[in-house]
Design brief:
With 90 residues, the protein is mostly helical. Helices cover 66% and strands 0% of the residues. 0% of the residues are buried.
């Protein structure tokens, strides 16, 4: 797939400057920037979908954990006091 992108002079200069500093091509810099953007946006979308699924589950079951319960549980991860996930409230 061939794609062209029109950049204004200021952005073009910034890309070129960064490419020179990194000893990379402008093409490589732009591909990395696009890849990072896509990864970030996909992560946001996944988070949103997960949150909506959690909300739907809560509306259907009424089961929940408080934010503090989750934080306290996560604080045990990687320690010798690591605990199981707390029981949900009804």
């Amino acid at each position: 797939m061939t794609t062209s992108v029109k950049l204004d002079e200021e952005l073009k200069n910034k890309v070129q400057h960064l490419a020179d500093l990194r000893n990379r091509s402008p093409h490589w810099i732009m591909c990395e920037a696009i890849r990072d953007y896509i990864d970030r946006e996909e992560a946001k979308e996944h988070f949103k979908e997960e949150a909506l699924a959690s909300w739907k589950s809560y509306k259907e079951t009424g089961r929940y954990l408080t934010g503090q319960e989750v934080r306290d549980w996560l604080q045990t991860w990687g320690t010798d006091k690591e605990s199981e996930i707390p029981q949900c409230h009804d």
